[in-house]
Amino acid sequence: MVDATDTDVPAGVAQYTGMRGxxxxxxxxxxxxxxxxxxxxxxxxxxxxxxxRRMPVEVAAATAATVNAWAAERDRFSxxxxxxxxxxxxxxxxxxxxxxxxxxEHHIQTNATLIDDAWCDFFREHDVHIGLxxxxxxxxxxxxxxxxxxxxYSRIVRGAEALRRHDIPFAALCVVSDPSAELARELYPYxxxxxxxxxxxxxxxxxxxxDRSNAYAEAAVRGFWAELTxxxxxDRAIELRDVEFAIRxxxxxxxxxxxxILPRQMDPIPTIAHDGAVTLLSPELAGFSSPHYGDxxxxxxxxxxxxxxxxxxxxxxxxxxxxxxxxxxxxxxPYFGFCGGAHAANRYFEHGRFDGTVTEHCxxxxxxxxxxxxxxxAPQHRGDGR
Length: 386
Ligand code: SF4
Known about the structure:
- The protein is built from 13 helices and 14 strands.
- By secondary structure, it is of the alpha/beta class.
- Strands 8-7-6-5-4-3-2-10-11-14 form a 10-stranded mixed beta sheet.
- Strand 2 (about 30), helix 1 and strand 3 (about 80) form a beta-alpha-beta unit.
- Iron/sulfur cluster binds near residues 4 and 357.
């Protein structure tokens, strides 16, 4: 068992130097067009997904006032519509929310169950980048159900078919609730067949209203990442987000420029909720508060410019505590250079505070990811001598 405090780590993982702060300009923002989701997945972290609280256009316009200026300074700036099912807001309302934005890329993370020809025309018209959520073949997607407990898989497949029919490229996001090498052997060919150009894996997280355990056996998680790497190596048709980042980091480290991989400053990732409330750093904290920290939102775009809310990030007690947690990680964790301190929400929902270090989440999605990739690289694991 390799833990964050363990100094005996596989070759190629080393310390990172330099203080991490929060950038004043993000590379993207997340907007919640509605809290509503037409599904009720067993592992969902969202607190208000059965309510249809829609974002008024004033909130989008207030956000765009800052975002358009940021976008004008950059080659690319993304607006990500997420958190609930964005398509549940309807085409007319979503178009009205998108209208105030200029010079940005619109991205929608969708469960795909509502996608039809009309939505595909909408995606074309607004040049929307699609991220589709599905966890693999039907049996593996069984946790994605609607409020009546009915399977969602057949509707997801219909949505993916519509995207292919209209030749609209899409990325896929897969939640893994039972990591194993056997699962990896099943998932990669499935997503190859589904037709996505990129695949992101989220090992299920204990966060928000999801209180299911995410404490998985080390061998199972390492085996999952090692086998996924092996599957990808046989046919690299899909961009494999997590594995390729680990390989890029290992390569940069061996070339002596690992510092180039982990940005010196963290992306503040502003999440603008349906009512204009802004939560920084961790979208999963949006809509939550605690007696000790108060509301995790640090401002509202209806009352303050978004850039001012971001600039004043450090004034929030929980953010200060999180930054101290990141420093604690740097002091003890051999994976810091690769990970950078991971996410505030996982610390809070696993530890109840922000200044702890290792979480089940970072074990599953940082430490064992790197170990799995390096395991695969080790000849004795590959058995092919190459
Ligand atoms: S969050 Fe990252 S740096 Fe901190 S203990 Fe986990 S792997 Fe290490």
